[in-house]
């Protein structure tokens, strides 16, 4: 086989196309979940914690130092981004839950599809042979 025909065989296998569709769908679901978290969940959490913006919630550590930015000297201090970390933990938790639910639904659909397909002629024939041998 030539390189081109090998590549065609690889690129157009059902599994590869299924994976590509799954990747596109996963990206779309991730964007939707991120929007849900950023615009609905995080404002609720921020209002409960009494912080205007969760990503801006930081804990200063250490002492202030002078730092020159664009020719202007400013006093800056190292900070721990507690709000950003909490937001990422919530993002991960909700996205993992959504993926878990999607996989449960998909596996349930696949089970139903397997149950609905009639057995092949070979399976029917082998079942008949087994049953006739069991009668003897």
Automatic annotation (TrEMBL):
<keyword id="KW-1133">Transmembrane helix</keyword>
<protein>
    <recommendedName>
        <fullName>Large-conductance mechanosensitive channel</fullName>
    </recommendedName>
</protein>
<keyword id="KW-0812">Transmembrane</keyword>
<feature type="transmembrane region" description="Helical">
    <location>
        <begin position="16"/>
        <end position="37"/>
    </location>
</feature>
<keyword id="KW-0407">Ion channel</keyword>
<dbReference type="InterPro" id="IPR037673">
    <property type="entry name" value="MSC/AndL"/>
</dbReference>
<keyword id="KW-0813">Transport</keyword>
<dbReference type="InterPro" id="IPR036019">
    <property type="entry name" value="MscL_channel"/>
</dbReference>
<keyword id="KW-0406">Ion transport</keyword>
<dbReference type="GO" id="GO:0005886">
    <property type="term" value="C:plasma membrane"/>
</dbReference>
<keyword id="KW-1003">Cell membrane</keyword>
<dbReference type="GO" id="GO:0008381">
    <property type="term" value="F:mechanosensitive monoatomic ion channel activity"/>
</dbReference>
<dbReference type="InterPro" id="IPR001185">
    <property type="entry name" value="MS_channel"/>
</dbReference>
<dbReference type="InterPro" id="IPR019823">
    <property type="entry name" value="Mechanosensitive_channel_CS"/>
</dbReference>
<comment type="function">
    <text>Channel that opens in response to stretch forces in the membrane lipid bilayer. May participate in the regulation of osmotic pressure changes within the cell.</text>
</comment>
<feature type="transmembrane region" description="Helical">
    <location>
        <begin position="85"/>
        <end position="103"/>
    </location>
</feature>
<keyword id="KW-0472">Membrane</keyword>
<comment type="similarity">
    <text>Belongs to the MscL family.</text>
</comment>
<comment type="subunit">
    <text>Homopentamer.</text>
</comment>
<dbReference type="Pfam" id="PF01741">
    <property type="entry name" value="MscL"/>
</dbReference>
